[in-house]
Write a structure and sequence with these properties.
It comes from Streptomyces prasinopilosus. The protein is mainly beta. The chain contains 1 helix and 72 strands.
């Protein structure tokens, strides 16, 4: 149903969990000077107070950096490549987001390339922000500084870009605070911009012109996009705190440079002059440099590539600072590595203990190494007992985030769940040798009994990621019955949320798309759901007949290379699909065969009318298209004045044929929100809406006859999330300056069952949902609407056998509330005539006594509004005939059977 404006070039470059960025076209701020910009943000109006939360997924993206404060216990931070920064909350064992205040124009500042916690004043924290160094991010980078642990920030703009989502982002930290004179900070820049220094606690920055080497390494010099061809620059800064005294600048500083021949530099005069460290190894990049000042050792983790995906060879070296001696302390012989080293940490309570990771080892798993004698000898997190069998020093418990198994059942030596991949961040708590955290491409793992490792006793690894939500969201749907929310995500496909406050058990599988690009459901049969997505090999479309609980793959038309957009007919009898790589197609049934649609160009965005099952709509390059024959043929609408580009999203209103809202455009061109009430033949542009990027609908306000309209837009000069309860005649901004989440232009939808509830797609902060203070918000998180009476009045049942075999069958049942009142709890009863017995049932609980079956609602689908439906499915055994039940009763009342 939606097309995201994610950078396809970024996705093409990714070999793993790479989340893309929004386009520059609608979010290009003016160039900013290098001087500090301390003016507070404009305080925009907010006429309604909303409570904002995340629909829990827990993780979902790359965590390249974890930083513990060295002077205060339990103070830790995590940085993400596109989802901002977080602070650890020890009391709840969870993370608090710190950069939700980043606004639309500065969306790039949700990418954090480095983070520093002040060791002298723990209230101070700094973040180097910026997502791309090429023109995908139109704005320059900035250093954000906070004196209240990230609760609020001031910003110093930089005269160059930073790359929180660029190659090499797992190296670092590039930002560091002088531990003796904490007003002094250093920042390593990419793109040949060199080393920078601040002497006023990050308020202003100047280049260290004496630093001799801005870096030379690029991942792919031939990449014309500038993504893989950028110089990865200066990648870490480490102070030797043994060479300074409080109040005076630290004398000795080490700097890591992305240069395989000249990777490590040192200053011994507080940054006035710099020299290449003599005798250093060559042929590798130094991903990390960690100093143990007690023993006088600088440890360096090397890889032949910049990461975070690539890396085929690696080494680990120890530099003795007093003598200048270099020692290869690699855990394995160079010939035996097929990965690079990156994650690197020292136990500050026991400095001879250190750990490192084989960050780029995907198969069969990542590896973690540990030494208790300064690298002289090592043990591994796992070893082979007799190939392919493994013996692990650890146990893994992912019950709190069960989807981390990916539903996989691999053959040895692979295991599920894996220890991880892209393990570039690894930190032992400086105050607690038993606690260790490490980031992967999907989560933060950790343990609180790490020293069991040294006693040959298993230590336990669990997700330590609650509160850190890092998915990039492409599409959202909220059906009128069943689960309140289904999502389409980059990297991990998407989820069915039956309870917004709980982590779903598994992402969508069968197939498991690397990115779900579009979702839709049949408006009058919401158990019928379709999704499309990207997959390296395999089908790009899947269907569900039980509200997204289970899926089966469809068949691709010839030439399909990506998911594109898809639309379900209002009654679920037909679908229209506009995939990438092929033109628009249509089908009846569940996509076993497709026919090309005529009259509509390839790449059009498609949607369905929510009332007429044969009416579909499309948009491409300023033209609106309409089909009234199920998608077989389209005709261009005479409507004019629409945006000329393809950054457009539109939706048809449920319950009213031909009522369409269209949002989109681009800065400097036609941009805004349009409304059609004649099936797209004409559109009226809404005045006062300067820009709009998404549109969605939710339950009507009390006393209102028209559904609530939501949009991510700029209205009367103010950017935000807006709500209208009067068909767009007036708008209320429902977010505030503290809740902006960068770019929110992919998808938005209200909840048809809870007035005021809205679901917002973000590009790295997961699925955000808001509840209005006007109605108390419906805090159950599951879509309930209050204590309505139980079933009363009319009901209608549709019973459909969807598959059968000699001794069994599968069926779906849909129950529609045709009465005037909502149901709060229901029980449906019928009798089988031929001895059939239910063996498995989903979306409900069941009992069977003889031929009589009773199905009751679950805890999330008991409320069924008037005119809405609820459905469930089951498998059952049979022998011989398989007659359909003749009668159904809902709580003792007979239902019409269709």
């Amino acid at each position: 149903m939606r097309r995201t404006r994610v950078l396809t070039a970024v996705l093409a470059l990714a070999a793993g969990l790479l989340t893309g960025g929004p386009p520059a076209l609608a979010a290009a701020p003016p160039d900013r000077p290098a001087a500090a910009s301390d003016a507070p943000a404009r305080s925009a109006f907010a006429a309604d107070t909303y409570t904002w939360k995340n629909a829990r997924i827990d993780g979902g993206g790359f965590v390249p950096g974890i930083v513990f404060n060295r002077s205060e216990k339990n103070l830790a931070y995590a940085r993400t490549d596109i989802g901002g920064a977080y602070r650890w909350q020890e009391a709840t064992k969870s993370w608090t987001p710190l950069l939700d205040s980043v606004g639309w124009d500065d969306w790039g500042h949700t990418g954090v390339v480095s983070l520093a916690s002040d060791p002298v004043d723990p209230d101070r924290v700094y973040a180097a922000a910026g997502t791309y160094t090429n023109d995908w991010d139109p704005g320059n980078g900035a250093v954000l500084r906070s004196t209240d642990r990230g609760a609020s920030w001031r910003k110093a703009d930089l005269p160059f870009k930073l790359g929180g989502n660029m190659p090499g982002r797992g190296m670092g930290e590039r930002l560091a605070v002088d531990p003796h004179r904490n007003s002094v900070l250093y920042l390593g820049a990419p793109s040949g911009k060199g080393l920078w220094r601040s002497t006023d606690s990050g308020a202003s920055w100047s280049q260290v012109t004496a630093f001799p080497n801005p870096g030379t390494y690029v991942q792919d010099p031939d990449d014309a996009s500038g993504y893989a061809s950028d110089n990865q620059g200066i990648v870490w800064v480490t102070f030797d705190e043994s060479t300074g005294t409080p109040g005076s600048a630290t004398r000795t500083i080490y700097v890591g440079v992305a240069d395989k021949e000249n990777a490590v530099y040192r200053s011994t005069d507080a940054g006035a002059t710099w020299q290449r460290v003599a005798g250093q190894p060559t042929g590798y990049l130094a991903h990390k440099g960690v100093l143990d000042t007690e023993n006088g050792h600088l440890y360096l983790a090397y890889s032949d590539k910049g990461g975070p995906y690539d890396g085929g060879k690696g080494r680990l070296w120890r530099y003795t600072t007093a003598t200048g001696t270099w020692t290869d302390i690699s855990p394995v012989a160079e010939a035996d590595t097929y990965y690079g080293f990156s994650g690197l940490t020292v136990d500050r309570q026991n400095p001879g203990t250190l750990m490192t990771t084989a960050y780029s080892s995907w198969w069969p798993d990542t590896q973690i190494f540990r030494s208790t004698d300064s690298g002289a000898t090592w043990t591994r997190a796992w070893d082979y007992s007799s190939y392919p069998d493994r013996v692990n020093r650890y146990t893994m418990d992912v019950s709190s985030v069960p989807w981390l198994t990916w539903g996989a059942d691999p053959s040895p030596p692979e295991q599920s769940p894996k220890l991880g991949w892209m393990t570039e961040s690894l930190e032992i708590d400086p105050f607690d040798p038993d606690r260790m955290m490490y980031g992967t491409g999907a989560t933060v793992y950790g343990t609180e009994n790490l020293t069991n490792w040294d006693r040959d006793t298993a230590f336990t690894i669990t997700p330590m990621v609650r509160g850190l939500e890092e998915t990039a969201v492409n599409d959202l749907i909220s059906p009128p019955s069943g689960a309140p929310l289904l999502s389409g995500l980059l990297d991990i496909g998407g989820f069915r949320h039956t309870d917004l406050t709980k982590v779903p058990p598994m992402m969508f599988t069968q197939p498991n798309f690397t990115a779900t690009t579009s979702l839709d459901f049949a408006e009058s049969r919401p158990d019928t759901v379709v999704r499309t997505g990207d997959l390296d090999s395999g089908p790009h479309i899947a269907f569900s007949t039980d509200n997204g609980a289970h899926w089966f793959a469809g068949t691709d038309p010839s030439g399909v290379s990506g998911g594109g957009t898809v639309a379900a007919g209002a009654d679920g009898s037909r679908f229209v699909w506009s995939p990438r790589g092929a033109g628009v197609h249509h089908t009846t049934g569940f996509g076993t065969s497709w026919s090309a649609s005529s009259g509509i160009p390839e790449g059009a965005v498609v949607e369905s009318d929510r009332v007429d099952p044969k009416t579909f709509y499309g948009f491409k390059s300023g033209r609106f298209y309409v089909s009234t024959d199920g998608g077989a043929t389209f005709a261009a609408s005479p409507a004019t004045g629409l945006p000329s580009g393809d950054s457009v999203r539109f939706k048809a209103l449920p319950g009213t044929k031909g009522d369409i809202w269209l949002a989109g455009g681009e800065s400097g061109g036609t941009y805004g929100l349009w409304h059609s009430t004649d099936g797209g033949r004409s559109f009226a542009k809404l005045s006062g809406v300067d820009e709009a990027d998404t549109v969605g609908f939710g339950k009507a306000a009390p006393g209102a006859s028209y559904q609530t309209v939501f949009t991510s837009a700029e209205i009367d000069g103010v950017r935000g999330i807006f709500r209208s309860t009067d068909r767009g005649q007036s708008w209320t901004r429902i977010n505030d300056d503290a809740h902006q989440w960068g770019w929110t232009g992919a998808a938005i939808t209200g909840d048809p069952r809870v007035y005021g509830r809205v679901y917002v797609a973000t590009n790295g902060r997961g699925i955000v949902y808001g509840d209005t203070s006007e109605t108390g918000g419906g805090d159950d998180g599951g879509g309930g609407t209050g204590p309505d009476p139980g079933p009363a009045g009319a009901c209608e049942v549709t019973y459909e056998i969807t598959n059968q075999w000699p001794d069994g069958f599968q069926a779906r049942v849909q129950v529609t509330n045709t009465g005037a009142n909502a149901w709060n709890g229901w029980a449906l009863t019928w009798s089988f005539a031929d001895g059939q017995r239910v063996s498995q049932l989903w979306n409900g609980g069941h009992t069977q006594s003889g031929p009589t079956v009773t199905v009751r609602n679950t805890d999330w689908n008991g409320t069924v509004a008037a005119g809405s439906s609820v459905g469930f499915g089951f498998t059952a055994s049979r022998s011989g005939t398989n007659a359909r039940p003749a009668a159904f009763a809902l709580d003792g009342r007979a239902c019409t059977v269709t």
